[in-house]
Amino acid sequence: MNRGSARELLMQLLFQMEMQQDFSDELKDSYLENVAGVRNQLDYINTIFTKVTDNLQLIDDVIDNNSEKWKVTRMPKVDKAILRLAIAEMLFAEDIPCEVSINEAVNLAKKFSTDESGKFINGILSKVI
Asked: Which of 116, 115, 69, 62 is nearest to 87 (CA)?
């Protein structure tokens, strides 16, 4: 599994957790045990997952502070998962350039949400830099 696929998987996991309102390690482990080829990206997935869950309020505050018209509580859950993932990378993963996190987030939005979401996410993340 490459890093892009790991991001996609992690975004789907964060979306699922938001839907269930369960951000536990148990749900993460259960989700990942059924995914083939994830072993080589487990460090990345576990690190970013932990950064998101340990800093969820901080990350949501960053989203709120950089979004002009939408509060995180009103955002589509897919967009919220993408933003949380990207902001966790931008704030806590020094080995990942912010531009890469933004580009990958926009690509995820285009794939899983709408073209408008891609622009929306790009706008928020560009303010975070």
From this structure: 62
Architecture of the domain whose range is 3-128? Orthogonal Bundle (1.10)
Residues 6+ apart with CB under 8 A from 59: 52, 83, 84, 87, 88, 91
Cα separation of 83 and 106, whole Å?
Answer: 9
Give per-residue pLDDT as tens, 13-57: 999 999 999 999 999 999 999 888 888 999 999 999 999 999 999
What are the C-alpha distances in Å from 66 to residues 94, 117, 128?
21, 15, 7
Q: Exposed, middle or buried: residue 11 (CB in 10 Å: 0-12, 13-18, 19+)?
A: buried
Q: What is the pLDDT of residues 108-120, one digit of tens each?
A: 999 999 879 999 9
| H, E, C per residue of 12-37 | HHHHHHHHHCCCCHHHHHHHHCCCCC
